[in-house]
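Notes from hallway chat w/ T.B., transcribed later so I don't forget. T.B. wanted the structure written out for a chain they're using in a teaching module, and asked if we could keep both sequence and structure tokens in one place. Agreed to drop them here.
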Amino acid sequence: MEFAWSPEQDAYRQTLKDTVAELLPDNWTTEIAPHSYGSKEQIAFSKSFCAEMANRGLLVQQWPAEYGGGDGDAWQQWILAEEMMWVGEPRGPQYMNVNWIGPAIMRHGSPEQKAEHLSRIAGGQVIWCQGFSEPGGGSDLAGMKTKAERQADGAYLVNGSKIWTSYSPSADYCFLLARTGEQRKAISIFLIPMSLPGIEIQTYPGLVGKGHLNQVFFTDMVVPESMRMGEEGQAWEIITYALRFERVSVARFHIGRKVLDRAVVQLQREGRFNDSAVRVRAGRIVALLEAGRLLSYYVIDQRAKQGSDDVNGNIARVSVSAASQELQAFIMDYTPDALTGGDYVLHEFFRANLSSTIAAGAYEIQLNLIAQGALNLPRSA
């Protein structure tokens, strides 16, 4: 793998930096960014920001031209993710659309679904949520109880509920998984408007920020067959493909280094960074963040070369999560004022990463996948 950025990649990154500097308003760091991605403030801003990024050909540069992109590669997607994360992710929840919902629809959607959804995503004007986890089930997708029962006219009657479902109060669409048979993996995917009758959203307060903790209830919701993506029971194949993009799509190590540097500056200012124990912990976090960066870069490099990242995406995900957890503990121990909003960058990193070992597949499930895929160990009970 070539560790240096190419001149073209450097130029692309600089274009992103210049564009972000131009588009972010003066109140970004004081009134908008301190809110979570799921907040109404960030979502409203994301629509104007992403629309302008789309107008400049920068929102989905890595997508194929036929779907509104610039025929770029995985590195452009990653550079975009780094630069967006560095300034507080002005795309809001739309990072998810660009990273994995769009690519999943490109690969598995019907021509009608591609026509309906991809241009909207590429235009930066649509919000999605994902209906995966369920109460009592967590990351155990095979144990889901939400059912989509086929009716005589071919439509599906959906009943059940999903938990977490970040962004659902403001979402236009849901990438919904539901059981369409009795077998463990008889699960299908539906691309549904959140305006369908039979949907109710219950929002809960929580440390991770507004818009993230929601339960969505489906009661006798009628879903036309045309909204099913792929064949019945094909969800596992589609989700396996989509999660390859999701697990290595958020540059936590990139913002993590910025957060650590800010914490160290505060400790230096207060004369507390001379403590050898503090310096050792900071050094350990630097090493963990660097390991996460290199592992993530390896996965992106394999993807750019059209190779298979296999279990390496899971390894990178675990590494970056471990680094984030160490950094959170460092913030809590040495800069606790950040937890009350003293420094919004530290505060938001801490809050947003409370779920870093749960979101996109629980930490323990990632370790299981690594054990099976890399070490050929049997599945744990």
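Follow-up for T.B.: The chain has a mean pLDDT of 88. Might be a good example for the class.
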